Amino acid sequence: MAQQVLSALQMPWLRSAYGTLAQSVAANRLPAAVLLTGVAGIGKRTLADDLASLLICVQPQPTELGHLRACGQCKSCQLKDAGNHPDYLFLTANDKGTITVDAIRELTRVTAQATHQSGRRVIVIVGAEAMNSNAANALLKTLEEPPAGTFIIMTTAVSSRLLPTIISRCQHYPLSASPEQATDWLQQHQLNVDFNVLTLLQNAPLALQNFIQSEEYSQLQAFSALYARWQQGEKGALNELKELIAQAPVERINWLINWVSAEAKQAPSPLASQLSQFYRNLLNSRVVLSQSGINQVLQVEKVISYGVLVNRE
Ligand SMILES: [Zn+2]
């Protein structure tokens, strides 16, 4: 489904991070390397792109909220929007899911040359965790001694997969949304979401927006209804859940994990410990399911058989 292009300022949960970054740009204090982190669908790429646009623009304009943003009119903005700005470089994983050392070497080669337009050069690396160790080491040299006027903006949902030496050379901006921010924003887009789904996708509004409009969401709603029947003591509902999970075990086992975990936290004590045990079985099962050569249907059968032991009387 085609999504309209939104700016970070249209995403309330990104405003304060954008504001901080824009102020740093205005004061010429932006660190040469910025790392934006947060779960998938939080808007890291949007924020990276807006920041890059602001750096590239030669006549930034203030918004009603007082933030400085790219004008969208000047020659630099037009070149960037057309994908032709010589001082704007964008990098993300290739078809194989990797950012290669060759790609980084090409970046550093360009970075060593003089800039063309506003005197600034901006490199955006989306999904920086896709750099293999050779690529990361090649980038490290540029991060250690960035040429004047060069800014590197990286994003990642899994900063644990970045080299510590990379992380330590970046100014870190963690991004997140509260359940209220996610719910409000989705409602503005005529979308409603229940609490279970919010937690499942860690309140990431853009991920939620995509998910709610997907076929998978109707499956999740069926799942939720079955879970409620099981909660009310209907053991047969668990068998129907099993069939739903078996259709896409690796993804949907997470649904059950999420529900059982939430319920275990609220249940009275004998039930809570049984649910916690079931939860641990589910976590183990998730590990097994992700391995290759596993009979997934059998594995789902097995883990659900633990659920049957939960006594809800
Ligand atoms: Zn401009």
UniProtKB/TrEMBL annotation:
Q: Which GO terms describe its cellular component?
A: DNA polymerase III complex
**What EC number is given for this enzyme?**
2.7.7.7
Give the GO biological process terms. Answer: DNA-templated DNA replication
Q: Which InterPro entries match?
A: DNA_Rep/Repair_Clamp_Loader (IPR050238), P-loop_NTPase (IPR027417)
| Reactions accelerated catalytically | DNA(n) + a 2'-deoxyribonucleoside 5'-triphosphate = DNA(n+1) + diphosphate
Keyword Zinc-finger (UniProt): no
**Keyword tags:** DNA-directed DNA polymerase, Nucleotidyltransferase, Transferase
Q: Which domain of life is it from?
A: Bacteria
Keyword flag Nucleotidyltransferase: yes
A Gene Ontology molecular function term for this protein is:
DNA-directed DNA polymerase activity
What is its EC class?
transferase
Q: What is this protein called?
A: DNA-directed DNA polymerase
Annotated organism of origin: Corallincola holothuriorum
Q: What is the lineage of its organism?
A: Bacteria, Pseudomonadati, Pseudomonadota, Gammaproteobacteria, Alteromonadales
